[in-house]
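Weekly puzzle thread! Below is a chain. First person to post its structure in token form gets bragging rights.
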Amino acid sequence: MFKYLKNDLPASIVVFFVALPLCLGIALASGAPLFSGLIAGIVGGILVGSLSGSQIGVSGPAAGLAAIVLAAIASLGYENFLVAVVLGGVIQLLFGILRLGIIGYYFPSSVIKGMLTGIGIIIILKQIPYFFGYDKDPEGDFAFFQIDGENTFSEIFNTISGIISGNYSAGATIIAIIAMFILILWGNVLSKKGRFFQLVQGPLVAVVVGIIFYVLTKDGALHITEDHLVAVPVPDGFESFIGQFSFPAFGAIAQAEVWIAAFTIALVASLETLLCVEATDKLDPHKRVTPTNRELLAQGSGNIVSGLIGGIPITQVIVRSSANIQSGGQTKMSAIIHGFFLLISVMLIPTLLNKIPLSVLAAVLFIVGYKLAKPKLFKTMWDLGWKQFLPFIVTVVVIVFKDLLWGIGIGLAVGIVVILIKSYQNSHFLHIEENTDGNKFKMTLAEEVTFFNKGAIIKELDRLPKSSYLELDVRKTRYLDNDIIEILEDFSHKARERNISIKLVSERGIVENPPSYIEFFNLRKKTQA
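Winning reply:
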């Protein structure tokens, strides 16, 4: 685990700077104490990171739960709400024991890509007001209709009006532009110049420059006011620090409202986690597969501990996870270390953290959002045909104009309709035959294979031992879903690492260890047409 510390440590610093304002902002958007968001971030990093089977996923408070948490706290009170968080964690443990993690495999790739792209767009749109020092809505409020009465686009229009009228923070805007320049220069030029620029990440440099700028301009015309800075609670001493923790009132455990809130938290948190796991595995350069049932057990344990000490609910979070991947994180140590950074910083240097301009962190999140929602992806999905593009674009649009869960739900519904239209002839089946010598396997795909078969195919491929030989027969396959092609493409990377040889048998002949399944099957489709 420590083998990749040189990669994980710099990545953990970037994740820390991304997570810090989101922990605070999501707590504020949830109507919870600010410190409760930090508790969730710390538990999500250290405990869930240690228990999870995901190597690059990062957990913490989730924006998708903010509305649920806000309503639950308003109706139950905070101490009773914490009981619901603990019970929600217990229910998640039961989900894991019942092996319900397989649910995540039944979401089509187009919807997962739409989720990533929609979140990327939301990140960019939501950070525009912070970039220009016109931040009225708390960080982490990712819903279209905001808790301050505005919506995503009206907030941007207000920001533009504020800039025109001069009602904005010039200092915040200047340092945001400087930070953006540093991030682009570091990422595109300096990181290729030497090991030092790879170890010291651009976001860390941008944050340090932002703190220096704030200190130097504190008494000048470019002074950045406190409402444009990070706002970590600052305790007077150890007793004051301990006093920030809240504890559940277990006397409310018999209340029906508490159990309803607990089941709601467990269901939504589990779904968000499983979708994030699926998305994170797709972003992973090594194409590792996260054990989803173990992830539910880890998340349930995290929510039990978070609720016991006053934290809000935890899920695996795509914003932090993608920042981790983009920064070169290789193992779970980056998530764990980022949790320790949160813990140490809020205990020892909260005053220093409160000198970080939010506009600098907005610049960091701009880069994260852009890498999730690159314009090239829209063309790629369009080229794959309407069956892939329609669920993708529907998911993106609904996430941007509604919220994450609605986008995923409607995108999934569209994906199911599309696949039912296509899958009217044959039922789906998959079988695998083992040869007598024990290291040669044959897999024959059905006439039509769709994303409903993802779980079975992934399970069988992962069971193949190292240094084995796989014959993949697709001669009878008339329709092969793009999701399955991507699974085969991802498996080819793992196969090389595990010394597994693959022979692809099709009506066009036999290919040994195809370099690209995507190119092969796209060419096959054109040949058939």
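Puzzle host: Confirmed. Bonus trivia for everyone else. Residues 424-428 have pLDDT under 50 and may be disordered.
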